[in-house]
Specification:
5 strands; alpha+beta; DNA polymerase, domain 1; Helicase, Ruva Protein, domain 3; about 200 residues; OB fold (Dihydrolipoamide Acetyltransferase, E2P)
């Protein structure tokens, strides 16, 4: 899988960026939030966190400015039935990551339903499946209340997106934090993957 791309902007449209990486042009579909954060200009050096989506008739590369955006995209695509990459990109284009997390925690169906192509029933399913099946709402609540550090919350979300059960991810992170209380999200993720 392609984890990230670092290259020069060859083309930039609001939902698509072409990156020249050592002479190869990669077309990457991006949400508006990523486009706005990067404000890509021709010739500018850019790094995108990526997710390669393979279908029967296409291989599509999706890009994000931050790991958090990519994690939310993966949660939507992999853990919510009926949500494909196009809908996940539409949700991220219409909401910032923290707004999305807040909407899930507060069960704000209307906020999620405002995204293009997402109706009330789909928004309800997103909230139900992310809150009950994946169980991330408690992590987001703890993060918002300052109980959990940003690094620990980000690492937990990333591990769940990688297929860990939430309880396993939380237990691994807690064990690493006992030994290394100042560990960043990357260190926590790597440590948990080694365990």
């Amino acid at each position: 899988m392609i984890s990230f791309l670092r290259g020069t902007v060859a083309e930039a449209l609001p939902q698509s960026i072409v990156l020249d990486v050592s002479g190869v042009g990669y077309e990457v579909i991006v949400p508006l939030s990523t486009y706005d954060a990067l404000n890509p200009q021709l010739g500018q050096q850019v790094e995108l966190k990526t997710h390669l989506h393979i279908r029967e008739n296409a291989q599509i590369l999706y890009g994000f400015a931050t790991d958090e955006e990519r994690d939310i995209f993966r949660l939507l695509v992999e853990h919510v039935s009926g949500i494909g990459p196009t809908t996940a990109i539409a949700i991220l284009s219409g909401m910032r990551v923290n707004e999305f997390k807040d909407a899930v925690v507060k069960q704000d169906v209307q906020a999620i339903a405002r995204a293009k192509g997402v109706g009330k029933k789909t928004a309800e399913r997103i909230i139900l499946e992310l809150k009950d099946k994946v169980g991330l709402a408690s992590t987001w609540e703890a993060q918002q209340q300052g109980v959990t550090s940003q690094a620990a919350a980000d690492a937990e979300l990333a591990l769940v997106a990688l297929g860990f059960k939430q309880a396993e991810a939380r237990k691994s992170i807690a064990a690493i934090l006992k030994k290394h209380p100042d560990a960043g999200a990357d260190q926590l993720i790597r440590g948990a993957l080694r365990q």
